[in-house]
Records
---
Amino acid sequence: MKTANCPSCGATITFRSAVSILTVCDHCQSTLIRHDLELENIGKMAELLPDPSPIRIGTEGIYRKSRFSVVGRIQLRYGQGIWNEWYLLFDNQRGGWLGETLGNHAVTFLIQPPEPLPAFSELRAGQSVTLKGRAFQVTNIETARCIAGEGELPIRVGPGYDAPVVDLQAPGQVFATLDYSETPPLVFVGEQVRFDDLKLTRLREIMPPGWEPDAGIQAQSFQCPGCGSALTIRAKGHSETLACGACGSIIDLTDENFRILSKFKAKVIHEPLIPLGTSGTLEGTAYQAIGYLRRCITVEEIDYEWSEYLLFHRERGFRWLVEYNGHWSLVHTLTEPPLVSGYAAKARAVYQDRSYRHFQTAKARVSYVLGEFYWRVRVGERVEVSDYIAPPFQLSRERTDREIVWSQAEYVEPAAIQTTFHLEAPPPLRMGIAPNQPSPYQAQRSKFRRLLGAFLALLIVGQIVTLALSADQRVHQQTFVFDESTRNQALNTEPFAVSGRESNLLVRAETNLNNNWLYLDLTLIERQTGASTTIGREISYYHGIDDGERWSEGDAGDDAVLSGISAGIYYLNVEGEWPRSSPAVTCTLTVFRDVPSWSNFFLALLGLLIVPMLFYWRARAFERARWAESDYG
Amino acid sequence: MFRGYLISGLLVLALFATAQYRGWSLFGASEAKSPPGTTRGIYHK
């Protein structure tokens, strides 16, 4: 630790880090450059913009079991608002950076550029860059402008200094920033971290004027510079722009005079279903709706438009609530890019061990805006959106030349929206199937599969038991000769006894048919009651050789099964019919009781499969309706 | 739908067991008398 006196006001200046070269005097805001033995005053540092960050100089924390203190800060403005880079001094005197933007935090360390890096102008969002053998994806390309600095810093900064920076991400929350303000570019590599994991202490207790830590969202009213309408800023310090619903002015909230950035004329004035300013609790956090925009894609000259509500919570940051055709999804941006593989219908994105199928890629444009946004929103703004689905989740990649943003959506039941936001009118009825709408059949699929398996097992066991226990008992056998002497005569068998429980009865006919036929009218008669069952059986057998090819048709034997025959004394009445010119036909009839049967097995099998097949068909129809709106529909 | 399938499946199995035990069958054993040899006459002249 080294101390010196401020050459401007004489206040004691302390350098805690040996590598710090710049400090800003707490008392007079002089920017002091450290030389060997003296401090050089290079002028007053501009004032920092008030922001709601709870971190301050002196804040302490732990990263990977190493304690650190926050000793400096650079505050920058970039496309999506204010970005703080806090300079960290670890106990071992190692320096690091804690990046803080839109509620996201990343700890990075300066490393030596391992290999030549592409020029800033050559980089595009989505491009792959290799650092130390690891493939990173370019996710954001910005030229950030330094607003001001405070505390001690290892680099020389000043207001108005432009920093062309590129953010890179790799799986596993790995994060890197390339700072092209120096040659060769500075390379910072680290990881995205959760605020709570840093175990920060000595945080700012008293917020800057206008900020109260427990008051949640701070509202500030002002008049629209375009039309004079009363407007309210609900997320002051977080919002970059505000769109006036009355005149279509998009106002720069970072400008103290509320400069108008652009104006748009809406063809239709849209009224948000969730009025801006309404609060609702989602995922255990009370969010307030602060912005509303409509976006649309055009497919085959048809516009498909949906609504997006920007939700805000002071600690949790932003969420989106998206509504399309009565379907709702809660969306949050991802800090880690999913792994994408394959092309077209086979494209997949894997995120947190869940595989998502590519659904659609389209150019979306903003068609209407109202309320606050954390970036410089503008009607007509276009991005390429690629959606990947794994209901109830959906991953969306929004891509421009300069930025790639991944987000994850989770389907929310419309009834929950009405309850959460205390809406008087029910939300619009759902139309069609949403890409990430959970299938009502999906949850039941495994239950159905298990039950079908159990039923089939029972059926097979039942059939095996039946086959094993069938008596297959021969109860009678008798031979008849059908010739001219028996033509047009009814013949009777000897009586035979059928005993035991009610069962089936098989009548087997074995004949000497040879290129001939025999038709039998068989009547089974119970001798005592006279109850009868009549069946007709046609037996035919032909064979021969045609064009050197042997053929045969029919069978000289036949089996007929009579069902539900009770115990009793029976006889068969047999009446035959055969060709007049044919030789005598000998037929032996054998009667069996309680024979194994397969017909009931197959009927039951069909009965057990009908409902699962219907279920499967309906589940398929649901998925077909879902995919009809995809690139592959 | 699941409960309906559970009930209908149990009914099918119960009916199957009863039919097997009692020797019932949905299929009739009777065949209509057709002029025999017609098929043979057409295909195997």
---
Amino acid sequence: MPPVIELDHISKRFGRVLAVDDLSFTVEQGQVCGLLGPNGAGKTTSLRMLVGLVHPSAGSLRLLDAPVRPGVSTLARVGTMIEHAAFVPYLSGLTNLRLYWEAGGARFADAALDDALAVADLGDAVHRKVKTYSQGMRQRLGIARTLLGRPDVLVLDEPTNGLDPGEMREVRELLRRYAESGATVLLSSHLLSEIEQVCSHVVVMERGRLVTAGTVRDLTAAVGTVYVEVDGDVVAARSTLESLPGVGVVHDEAPGLLVELGTVRRADLVAALVHAGIGVETVVSRRRLEDAFLGLLHEET
Amino acid sequence: MLALVRTELSKQLRRPRTWVALGACALIPIIVAVALKASPPTAQEHGENPFFLLSVNTGLLVPGAALRVMSRLFLIVVVALFAGDAVAGEASSGNLRAVLVRPVGRGRLLAAKLCTAVTLSIAATVTVAVAGLAAGVVAFGFHPLDVLGFHRSEGQLLLALAGGVGYVAWSLMGIIVFAFMISTMTDSSAGATLAAVGLYLTSQILDAISALGSVRNYLPTHKLDAWDGLILGRSVGSDMWQGVLLQVPYIVLGIAFAWWWFRRKDILS
């Protein structure tokens, strides 16, 4: 089966600025892929090219096995929200949804309105003018708008911007459920924890270039840091590990400890604890995406 | 295409600014009628605009008077506003990208937005005439024009008025298309509107410089007032025909450039 999203050596130049430089990656069906990178990495430009808003200077893009160009019919199967959710401010939320939907030549009766309104969770406010909405309400309505066509692909740029923690969690669960139903999601985010919690795959960009792409698990599985849970005195375990030559920093992470291995092998660490009479329950790699991300960027520079 | 036009028109008709502009187009002719009634003009005061002088004889000339006055600037600003905001206004609010991520061709969207701007501009011109007609009939009655042996029946005056409205609406097309073209090139609707009004004012200024000779014949506003002879019984066929043709290159070139530009434009707002 061909990839749902395919970027093949795309570049985008704005005058002298090379915003995206020879970027290639694919996203398969059912994947939730996070596009990660610092500000100015070219994430939003890449997403804009993917949905035909921006013309690539070089390379090609395919979406649902069809070449991408402005207004292409496959966009009917894609729900897109780029940057902040924009609406006609003097119209109600519901009228905005209707006009958005009808602009594509479809009947509003065919839209998945109930599902979308459940996501928007605006209650009677959906009949109010959008200019009276908070940023969170606009963002929820924006996500709801992407779902009107029961899309096969969701392309979301910073989807949880402006949402409170509860709403962010709901969106994350929504995206997970959506991917489980067979849809494909590509989202960019500044929130590494969000990518880590939602995404199965990640694409890391910096200065317009691809740094790495793969599963979140692979990216965080490096052996640099391990999480240790002991059967006994955690304070004594910490003291033992800190006195072990070559071990880096030891952090508390209840109920266990997070240990930067430094030059020490995992087996030496276990041996030291056992030798001190402390039982070892768990030793697992625990490199957070943030560490991996920052490490990758450091390597790049 | 029809769905897009309906959507665009629906957005504009729900916009308070549209109704404020159309309301002003209705209000000014009423003010003109009230002013003429309160203080009937003399030949010395309005020697160059016979509509004002003759309006006291029949209300059917008041819309002509209002159209003549308002087509000099106010209508220009209104139509430039409708056309200048068409693309740039949505681009600046970010709503343009929300539409373009749907399976909507850029050419179709552009055509729908131009249709909407033209429709609203025609509505503004018609509003001036209808409001002027209503106010004029209330103030001066529904009579034929009989002055110094010159006679025009009510039917002839209404027909001439309809022709004048059509001519003015067409004569504004060059400005509309220019504002629309600029609107595709910027995210500032005020900038596009001002550019179009600036073009009009420049054209008017250059048209007043007789030393420019035949160059003036190609200015978009050169034949803007050619229609008034229709109502006043002068032979205007040649002038009006030239005025109609004069708009064609501005319209064709403006639309072609807007289309070329917008299809290649990166939507970054």
---
Amino acid sequence: MIPTMRVSTVLYLTLTSVLLTSLNACASEYDHRSFVATYCVQCHGAELSEGEIRLDTLPTNFNDPRTASIWAEVVNSINSHAMPPEEEPQPPVDEAAKFARWLETSLAEAEIAKRSARTVLRRMNRAEYNNTIRDLVGVDFKPADAFPQDPPAGGFDNMGEALTMSPLQMELYYAAARTILDRALVEGEKPASIKWRFDPEENSEGADRYRVKHDGNNILVNDGDNATQDVFTVIHHDSWNKGIGFRDFSLPSEGEYIIRFRAAGRVPERDDVVASARRILEQRRDEALAKKPESLKHESLKHENERLENDLEHFATDRIYDYGPPRIKVGIDLGGTPEVVAEFDIDALESSPSTYEVRANFTTEKAGVRLNYAYSVPSVLENFWMQGREEFARPELLVDWIELEGPIYPTWPPASHSRILWESPHRNENETAYAREVIGRFMAKAYRRPLVDGELEAKLELFLKLRADKPSFVEAIKVPLASVLASPNFLYLAEPVTPSEAPLEINAYELASRLSYFLWSSMPDNELLHLANRGELSKADVLESQVTRMLDDAKSDALVTNFAGQWLGLRDVGANPPTSTLYPKYDRHLEVSMVKETEAFFAEFLRQDLDSRGLIKSDFVTINERLARYYGIPGVKGDAFRRVDAPPQSHRGGLVTQASIHCITSNGTRTSPVTRGVWVMKSLLGTDPGLPVANVGEIPTQVPGLDKATVRDRLEIHRENPACARCHDKIDPLGFALENFNAAGEWRDREGHGYNGRIGKNDPVIDASAKMPDGSEFSGVEGLQTQLLQNEDLFLASLASRMMTYALGRELGFSDRATVRSLVESMKQNRYTVRSLVVAIVTSEQFNTK
Amino acid sequence: MNSNSPTPLSRRAVLRGCGAVIGLPLLEAMMPRTLLAAPSKFKPLAKSTAKPTPRAIFCYVPNGVNILEWMPEGEGTDYVLSPTLEMLQEHRADMSVLSGLGHPHSTGGHSGADTWLTGADLGAVPGKDYSNTISVDQLIAEQVGVHTRFPSLQLSDGSGTGGALHSHTLSFDRNGTPLPAENSPKRMFERLFVPEDASSREATLKRYAEKRSILDDVTNEAKTLERTLGRNDQRKLNEYLDSVRETELRVQRQIAWVDVPKPDVRDDGLQLNSQPGNAHDRTMWLDVMLEISYLSFVTDTTRVITFEWSREAGGYGPGGENHHELSHHGGDAGMLKKLGVIDRGFLERLNRFMTFLKQTEEAGRSMLDHTMIVYGSGMNSGERGDHSPKNLPTIVAGGSAWGLKHGKHLRHDPDNHPPLSNVLTTIAQKMGVETAQFQDATGTLTGLT
């Protein structure tokens, strides 16, 4: 027992110390003077000030920009081995590393210290704008998606300092305000609606398309080159001639329409797959035999049969044939521009078809609706030539009729209209009084606080000024309301305060906004505003119960996608996807699923109040059928994400086992252990290893003298260079431990060197062992997880500081460190839960002051 | 399948014809004609009626080039065109090949489009992960833009702005905010050339007046708010106030254009339905976007255009190839060869565009003499698939009427070269902008004027 314990203690200490040098090692403890005296002053001293740089007298006041820039130059020269020059005595690697590390830490500390530790006036970002419009106006069409991307800082796009304003954005805010109000407010009678039904299989003209007349449109209906069975068009696979739908029509009015269709799926069992493949392979065998001369037939038959059985093995064993239900892709064309509206599983069986609905916004432009088969069977060497044959068993999509109905208004006028222009006694009596009511109510909600003197009057004046020019009250009221949506009190989370040295407490309404933008990425609801109004919100128990209520609300999905999505880098999934030739199993469905897995995983901890250390290693996964097939976990049916026990042999359970993370830390063709190591350090351990010293280019494809060089072998060449090794010796091992996951997140035991990356019998076995610079060792993903768990303080501090950054909308400074420590303490006293962290943040001094 | 369907060739027919049962990729010939764009029938004008004026178009291709087949031999006027640059052979006298240049602040990777026209140090501002500065086209547009209906145009194969470090636009305003680009030829054509309803003049003027009232109102509101804020918050609010003020000026300019009709341009022969995301349409889409650029110039609808032909780390080559994948060639000869095909495909499109300009007479010279073209990439994939910001492939063409000197290879040392901003400064000056140095420039580029 004792030796084991000692080893693990040593491991703990060494890993911690290596990772912490840049963060916690106190910069002032190091004395740089002897290094400078030994290696620098010959040229940069009193006698010779090369390049007018004298280092023996250079002060260590890193707050001075000029001094800092000279030291920055020094650290770059040391790291890139430009200094000392080759002909001069060279410092030992570890001494140079210590010196460089001291400089980097000191410079970083000085830079962070200069930043303001106060939350600065923050503009809503795109996600917040969309959600706020949804909650304020009641129209949900994501107007901000057309705005420029918000610049991130500290890894998040809700940082006040970075969220700038430009004339272009002002134009877009103005245009969006007009569009939003035009959508929300209506006049006149409810537009006439249409309801068209098409039966593609009722095509008696023999062609794959025919015309149908509806409301003055001569519509082209297309049933594709598909078989018809009973009432169904049966779509076997996707191809240019297999899509069905209708087009060449113009709708009488724009708005939201329902595309509705009756459909079912047919999913072959494994036996069906093997049987169908056998038939096709037999046909190929017979064709091959027919070409042989009679004398060779007997020998050839034996050979061909062996080959057949051999090829069949793939169909009998590969997981890709554990088919799920067929998928459908619904798209529309508007004015010649195609757009995918939805993509989902058709889970109804042939025995009980179901009706599916998709909503889409149409204009009066020339339009079309398309339904395409969207299940992808990975195209591999064994099946690519037979996949498109109708006799090949694969999930089949059965579509009966398709309808288009709309524009859809559950009520007239729509709810968005009645919410703004509600029934009031003044409505028909006194227009100006009614305008005052309407503007006042909308404005207070939009500004998230009671109005102050004069605010309402200015807007009313605008209304009166333009009223005579406008044909109706509705048109006139849009003007002041648009002004509200373009005003700084709406676009910014304004927190007026008397300037003072000490942080001041924010008021209850400002607290309500901070809370709701933190947990919902949206405006506060009525309950929060009522509590603010009654002065109860800042009470600790009220705050805590509000956190519980808000996290239980579906709107807290925004915290999952915006916080977890950016903390872990999920927005990068798909930016540089695995190449299809090398990773044929990677498709759109998988890509979407892997993002959702990680989101669902974080949501599970948030909603079920779990121990956050489980984020590192858990005994469950949150997956759907698509991922279950990919990961080889049996018994998961359907596209919904759910918690499932993780079988130990699956090697899954925890963030570092998730395909999303493996993909964003690969370059599309191969894994990148460096990127993986950096990801682990930055995201889970809160350490930034910094940038490489120079652009070193792609790692070589080959290693001299090695027949099958693995990525690991190829990286070793880099590390022979001491300039690289200084940092990479501690980065790369963390990534090497994940080498069993390929660039698409699939488990592998060997690194493939065959055709298109296929794994051959003699290909190199994955070496997932990791050795840190101090000699400590661990191996594989499980070894890495153990290491991370032993460093739980680093992980908790990383999670706490990331979430606090996101909550405050500003980057943290040195003065926030004590708070981060207290957040970690608070988690430890509360079963390490994510919720306890949220509560600790919203009750912290930083969150309640400005 | 019906034999009358417009499908030229069924898949099975192809398979039968081959006499073997093999899987074939979907050939272009098998796409139903109705869904696809056809080659352009567009013809340039013989003569331009526009007043000769300096114009500039900046064309960006992503993922670098096969630099081995790109770099010309020799330098000065005696240089030998490389296999790739051979595509522009007929315009040799009207263009210069610049090698060895780069933006010193650029960090390489796939962020080239973000800095190609700005030369910015994206990490320069403490407290921001990313910040950009004004691009040279916007510097130009600030001055010459007042003369045209559209101060500048932004074209790209991805609409909008894209994300930081993967920009879909080359243009950034004075605050470093990306200007969204348009990728639909149809929408672009409508914006530029389809007349507004004549009866709506009054309505348009009213709309502008209303916008000004609202801008006045929010300005007042912002000034009231300003008085209640702390100093840091006031600084942030000033960005807002500045933006409102600038928006107001723009409205004034727009009002001035209300009574000027749009030029009479027909869409004959233009493949306005070409889709940038459709591999088959790729060439047609590039062509039609360049045709629209040509039409914008010849009608003096704008004088400055930026055009990102394809996105970094994604997007297609002119034949629908996976361009990004090939840029990680690692020195592989097969991949380099394919890259060369892409590079030449792109230059073929450029060549066609240059020929249009060359063929159009304008005030006794060719329109090309009045139009400056900067073509290049913000990345160099080198000999081994590096993603380096050094030795960027760059071509400058046209504009000889304004003093650009061509017919040369201007070679520079990739490790000791003038900043690429010197080229941008040269173009800005020739466009009439009085600037001694754009961004980190040390002057104009020697040899180009």
